[in-house]
Amino acid sequence: MNNKIKRILPQLLTILFVVLVFGFFTINAQVNMDNRGIDFGFGFLSQEASFDMQFTLLDYDGQDSYLWAYVVALLNTLLVSVLGIIFCTILGVIIGIARLSQNFLIKNSAAWYVEFFRNIPLLLQIFFWYYAALRALPLPENAQPWFGVTYMTIKGYYIPSMIWENLNVFMSCLIAAIVTIIFIRIYAKKIQEKEGKQLPVLYISLALITILPLLSFLIGGVTLDFEMPVLKQLAQTSFIFEGGIALPPELIALVLALSLYTSTFVAECVRAGIQGISKGQKEAAASVGLTPNQILKLVIMPQALRIIIPPTTNQYLNLTKNSSLAAAIAYPDLVLVFAGTALMQTGKAIEIVGITMLTYLSISLAIAALMNWYNKRIEIKEK
Amino acid sequence: MNLSLNRIKSQNQMTNIYIGSALLILSILDVFLNSFFRINISGSLPGNLSIFFPLILGFLGLSYLRTEYSGYKFLDSLNKNINTTNFNAFLTLFITFAILKAFPPALSWMVLDANISGDTKEACTGTGACWTYIKVWFKRFMYGMYPNELHWRINSAFLLVIGLGFVGYFFKENLKKYLALYYVVIYPIIAFLIIYYLISGGAFGLVWVETGAWGGLSLTFIVSFFCLIFCFPLGMILALGRRSNLPAIRYISVGYIEFWRGVPLITVLFMSSVMFPMFLPQDFFMDKLVRVIIAITLFEAAYCAEVIRGGLQALPRGQYDAAKSLGMGYWKMHIFVILPQALKLVIPGIANTFLALVKDTPLIFVVGLAEIAGMLALAKTNPKWLGFAMEGYIFAAIIFWIICYAMSKYSYNLEEKYKTER
């Protein structure tokens, strides 16, 4: 009896405390909203947003609803995150491996790169790129082409855009190639387990993924044209580039800062992962007669990835959350558009901040769930 | 590749070394003269060849120098460290040349062509950096809009708080058991009172300075310091709650931790500035700075809790069993056996959390608090000082880098120290 009370009482008190806090806040919120004549509700989502966005992936103008503004802004956030993740992975892996190099110079430059970019607040890095470094770029009329067709100017980075014909044929070819590769992988694994033979899966995959889309050009009637950015004079001294895709400086500054900053953390994860494999593993594999390539592919990488992937995913998550710093340099991401402009216009503080937080929360929880599932899958099963 | 290069080598090792060092020195000399004195000795070569000339020369030189064993100490260490393979040699040259090329412009911008004299923008005549700007605005970057004649109050408050932080070192043996009590309960209260009365004033004959005037780097320290001392106890409770075997408490703790860890700090700050006032009673006014500190504390407590949980989990089960077998209850066991050991384990982790906290504080700029990033934005748009964004951000970056680098080295040392003691 005494034990039961000991178990139940603290729980009841905690729940009571939480309920009281929430109740207190709810009552206050109701009173406050009544006084200011605001009512709680999500009806505003279907109203006309009537503000404009500088940079969008989908078609958007001021006549669209707040809901559509939310979707477009969320896509902008995801665009920054995905670009950041791609670049920070490439940089991070290179730097992480460089830190383990035997070359004294390479090792130390990599170490200093990590120490340098990790210890400066991300916001300052974003500001530096946006307000200081990118402002030093040439005006459109003075811009020299990079790689012949792209232009880096103070107003953004202009690249040729692709004009597809019969894009769906091309896409279905690509998907077909990927599906075939997956099947071949499963088949190759079965063969290996049964007969011990190894199929050259990598070469087959590479061949498939180039040949099938190429075939779609030859047979499927797919054509690809490039639209080049062209300098156009608006007034006596004002020039712009027309045509092609324009990446705004906000996006460039954000992706640069995010990927440089996060790559230092990824590099540390990669280094820890590779160092975490004992030398004995490599030597044992070599003594069994595996070639260096096979050692890397079959012994080192599977074990190193097991150590590398969980913390790296955490860093990707951090990058996604940090992409909300976009609001500081007016890149139209979720926080700026929704928790900034939309909130200012509607005054629905609770709903809008709630939605914004829930969005990030669900991205985080989804990735965390995926991570747990992956961890369970790759766990070393000891008997 | 290696084979074909070996073929051009002479059989005589000394000849190889002479040719190799001559080529290498020539290539480095070329880049050096080019970047420091603008003399281009390979300029007569056609087209792109002059750009790649030193690279090719140095590459050949290094491959001539590469031998198993030469007997010269310097050459052998060179071969072992930076010249093992062709690829390594190439990277070595690339990095060396990049440093040689980047050094003179950076040096002339930062020092040689820079200006620091004078008090106005007109004093900056050189092509380099304008450190006059930093000099003029220095007090603003450090203290925000705090009245100039009252800066001694901020300085003395910081000195007092830091001094009190070191008091624990001088505790006598018989007082050691109160150390935790001092740091967790007494020190935060005293520090809060000192900062409140000394910096904001309003009592003891000190002039009242509203929090809107606080700013600059000192605000960064105030915010991160308070958040740290408040989030630590909260994090400890949450960590214990997450490991509790009472389901309601565990789920509430897990929910709290996962919620705050899942949202970005910037939305938390938005919440504190626009949403939180709606949740307070009608006539209750709370200062924006206080709201921000509460929000960051709640946010950081979740991270703190995870760090402390790591320490709790790292303790062997035997410690729990031993404490229980002595008849200790839950609280007795945790206060006397588990927490003292676990907290010692998590000190490096807490130091890292604090580092992250300091790096996150510039974000309060987004909700309108004039922390150093905010002061920079203000100074940059001042009509008298347009066009010096670069200097400002480099200055702030250097300051933050020094602080954060020192802290990360310190936490690394702590980690090493406690690793060996276990």
Structure description:
- The complex is a heterodimer of chains A (383) and B (422).
- With 383 residues, chain A is α+β, with helices and mostly antiparallel strands.
- Chain A has 2 domains: 2-40; 66-160 and 228-378, Orthogonal Bundle (MetI-like fold), CATH 1.10.3720.
- Chain A has helices at 2-36, 66-98, 104-118, 122-133, 167-195, 201-218, 249-275, 279-288, 292-322, 334-346, 349-378; strands spanning 145-146, 150-153, 156-159, 161-165, 223-227, 230-233, 239-242, 245-247.
- In chain A, the strands form 3 sheets. In chain A, strands 1-2-3-8 form a 4-stranded antiparallel β-sheet. In chain A, strands 4-5 form a two-stranded antiparallel sheet. In chain A, strands 6-7 form a two-stranded antiparallel sheet.
- The radius of gyration of chain A is 27 Å and the shape is globular.
- By secondary structure, chain B is mainly alpha-helical.
- Chain B has helices at residues 2-7, 13-37, 49-65, 73-82, 86-112, 131-143, 151-165, 179-200, 216-242, 247-262, 265-279, 288-314, 317-325, 330-360, 372-380, 389-421.
- Chain B contains 16 helices and no strands.
- Helices cover 72% and strands 0% of the residues of chain B.
